[in-house]
Design goal:
Length: 423
């Protein structure tokens, strides 16, 4: 009960007691739990991350490509996220770097890698976590791919024990927290590998050369340094790694503080829909499309003991997406699918950093017309979706920096996934 109805003795006032929402209590605990593990991980890994950024920059400078591999459904979303971040940078001034994603959908990871891998390449492996229902196969496949990559002379990086030269294992019992740490890690690698392109004299094979910043050198004091200053640049990069880890921790806490009730309301809406036999439909663009892939994986293939939930990923069929984009236009790629698949009582879940993507706004309108409940994960100030109240539940991550928005959104939708089981 929200308030007591017991009689009040004369001369006393009734003190209203409000019971805490158990879902909100649990959600707050999940956010606080992340704060206790993220910084210690990056405290221990920051030095190696900085040095790996240099090694990756050297490989890219020699014509190498980044090849991300992963077998499990959750790993697929990370593989695709890595590829789109490097190929299509969202931050002005970052260069496009060659990145390829290899997943189980196209067959054996090792067989695919054997056709593609070349000595200058970087192979980034996403092994399965211990709770993955496909764990044995999902662990063996990346390990076999890493073995081939090492034999070819590739630089190998793994996010668990898989035989890679550079391994970073987040550990812990919670697969969602582990995945969030890994997402921050590969975002940081993408962000900071670019630092070394601004210090061309530091890259292997360019001894005796310098990057001349010209008249603007006073704005960029590090750009004119000789190669022997590499340790000072690495120290700067290491500090930047720690700063980014602190930023996302603070942002998660702030996002929950501002949208916590919406997390709980969204979880209750989802649970009611699933209990009534309805389906979740998820979508997003670019990096946000990979968030939709991750959400679909989490609902279809949850941690052991949780119920699998019916979910459609509207980003996964390239034939449908390209047909709609070609014949009608990109604004209709999701709305058209809601026309085909959406049924009254289903739930639409959308991911966007801007909150103003035209195709998502159009699809939210279509979803509402068809009687679907709507959930939107948005960044910045919520964009048009928040300003116009276009979704039933709007979960805002108040930041203007896309990598951190996506990392905090991952915490929000992972937490909601757990709350669905407790609703």
């Amino acid at each position: 009960m929200a308030a007591t109805d017991a009689p009040v003795a004369a001369g006393h006032t009734r003190e209203r007691t409000v019971a805490a929402d158990p879902l909100e209590v649990r959600a707050r605990a999940l956010v606080e739990q992340r704060a206790t593990v993220v910084r210690p991980f990056f405290d221990g890994a920051a030095e190696r991350v900085a040095r790996l950024c240099l090694r990756m920059a050297e490989r890219f400078a020699r014509g190498g490509r980044l090849i991300a591999v992963g077998y499990s459904p959750a790993a697929r979303s990370d593989v695709r996220h890595v590829a789109v971040e490097f190929v299509h940078p969202v931050i002005v001034g970052k260069r496009a770097l060659p990145a390829i994603g290899i997943t189980a959908g196209e067959g054996s990871l090792a067989a695919q890698l054997a056709l593609l891998a070349e000595p200058p390449d970087i192979v980034l492996a996403f092994p399965a976590d211990a709770h993955d229902p496909l764990e044995s196969r999902a662990a063996a496949e990346p390990r076999a791919a890493v073995t081939i990559a090492r034999d070819r002379g590739c630089l190998t990086v793994g996010f668990a024990d898989c035989g890679a030269e550079w391994e970073f294992s987040p550990g812990g019992e919670d697969p969602f927290i582990a995945q969030e740490i890994v997402e921050t890690l590969y975002h940081v690698l993408w962000e900071l590998v670019h630092v070394f392109f601004e210090h061309k004299g530091l890259l292997e094979g360019s001894v005796g050369t310098r990057h001349d910043a010209g008249a603007s050198r006073f704005l960029y004091p590090f750009l004119g340094r000789e190669e022997h200053d590499v340790e000072r640049v690495i120290a700067d990069v290491r500090q930047s790694v720690l700063m980014k880890a602190e930023e996302v921790t603070a942002l998660r806490i702030r996002a929950f503080g501002e949208s916590g009730p919406a997390w709980c309301a969204a979880a209750r809406t989802l649970r009611a829909a699933f209990d009534a036999g309805h389906t979740l439909l998820v979508c997003g663009n670019g990096g946000s499309a990979t968030d939709a892939m991750d959400a679909a994986a989490d609902y279809r293939f949850p941690p052991a003991g949780w119920t699998s939930r019916p979910t459609l990923d509207l980003t996964e069929d390239a034939a449908i997406i390209t047909a709609i984009a070609n014949d009608i236009g990109s604004d209709a790629i999701f709305a058209r699918q809601f026309i085909a698949y959406g049924r009254r009582g289903d739930v639409a879940m959308m991911f966007t950093t801007s909150g103003s993507s035209r195709n998502l706004i159009q699809s939210l309108g279509e979803a509402r017309r068809r009687g679907l409940a709507t959930i939107a994960f948005v960044g910045y100030d919520g964009g048009e979706i928040a300003a116009r109240a276009l979704a039933d539940h709007v979960i805002i991550v108040p930041s203007q920096y896309i990598p951190r928005i996506q990392e905090a959104q991952a915490t929000a939708h992972h937490s909601i996934r757990e709350l669905v089981e407790k609703a």
